[in-house]
Structure formats: structure tokens, C-alpha cells
Amino acid sequence: MDVAESITLHPAGLPGEAAALARARIAAVAQDASALVEAVRIRLAAAPGRVLAQVNAEVDGRRVRVQLAARGIGEAADRLADGLRHRIRTVSASWRPRPWPSGDRAVGVPATGSERIVRVKSPSLVWCSPDAAVRTLDAMDYDVHLFTDPATETDAVVQRIGPTGYRLARTLPAAPPQRPATPLTLSPHPAPPLTDRQAAARLTAAELPYLFFADPVTRRGRLLYRRLDGDLGLVVPAG
């Protein structure tokens, strides 16, 4: 099968030629890669003055993602291709922190927007070390990543705080990880107990890109984030 034909494409509010351009750019990257690139999915959406774009793929069995906002479809297609090419090189070589700040989001995420939560994701959180969580954060192009730390059996997040630094925050206070392979700063504060509505109000008032908080009843970690379209998304652990 032709590489382009194997790509799943979801264009929303964009003409067919725009979708074809993005498909062709991504197909060329996948075809030329030295690694096996499969399960490629492209999402495109028109927004006021911007194009929102995302590509997900598996590179030698490892999931990668690029997400960005661009001023037009040509810029979006080129930067998606460049981002995927970089992710392929990154996961195929020894791990290093991705460039900071990432050039993938030159247009940027809106600093403010509505308090409306338009999407709720309920994944089964991966139990992994903070080091493994950091590698997932970089490979998946996340700003922050929610996981469960088996050393403390608490939900936690890792986030980028500078060119080579990462911060670890947990729902409950605990000792720092022993001999982490990546430079980690431990947040001294537990995740604040908030309802979803309280979290949305706090994130919006402080113009935060995301907020890690704890369910007041279950004490499970939850992650609220500002989407590229200006609305809010919420990650809630399954179970």
C-alpha cells in the first residue's frame, strides 16, 4: 500500500487540497525515515486566523505526537512534517531533552479563554518512574504529563521548566526520587483539592496553560489544560 493511502486524515472545515498537502508532506517524512513509521493519523481544524494541526504516529512501536497552531495550511503542513521528522530522530537515538521552548507552537496557545471544559479524557494512568514519564512527555510533545508514580503510589505530573529541567509534582507530599536520570525539581506543594469548576476558574483567572489538582473526594490527580482552540480539556484517571 502507498504510504499516503495508509494515513488516516481528519480535516475539519478545510478544503480537500489543504488535506492533500498535509498528507503528502507527512507521507514523504514517513517514506524517507530509517525507522518504521506506521499508524499515522493527521488532524486538521480551521480556527479564526489559524489552522490547528496534529499528527500522531508509531515509530518502531513507540508513540509520538506533534501538535501546533499555524497561520495557514502551508505553514501547518511544513511544521508538522519538520516536527515529525524531529520526533523520529529523537526516539531512534539516545534520549535527550527536546529543544526549549519548542518551535512547534510558534503561534501559541491562547493565554486566556472560556472556563468551558469541552473534552474529558479518562485514560488508565501508566505506572512508571518520573524518568519514564519525562521521556513520554517529550516524545508526545506534551507540556505536562499525568502518570502514577509506583514508588509512592500517588498520581503525579512532570512538566518542563527550562532548557534542560523538569518539575515533578504529586498529589501528596513525598521524598524526592532516588538518583533520577533526568534533572528533576520536586514541587514542595501537594496538588490542591479542587472541584472541576474551581480548577477552571483558577486556571482562567491566573492565565495558566494547565493546572494539576486533586479530586476533593477521591484525591486522585486530575489535569486541566488550555486547548489550542481556547477552550479547556480535562484528564481524569480511569477507575
UniProtKB/TrEMBL annotation:
Gene Ontology MF terms: ribosomal small subunit binding
GO biological process assignments: negative regulation of translational elongation
Region (Disordered): 174-195
Pfam families: Ribosom_S30AE_C (PF16321)
Gene3D superfamilies for this protein: Sigma 54 modulation/S30EA ribosomal protein, C-terminal domain
Annotated InterPro entries: HPF/YfiA_ribosome-assoc, Ribosom_S30AE_C, Ribosom_S30AE_C_sf
Membrane-spanning intervals of the chain: none
Domain Sigma 54 modulation/S30EA ribosomal protein C-terminal: 115-168
One GO cellular component term noted in the UniProt record for this chain: cytosolic small ribosomal subunit
Database matches in PANTHER family: 30S RIBOSOMAL PROTEIN
Protein name from the UniProt record: Sigma 54 modulation/S30EA ribosomal protein C-terminal domain-containing protein
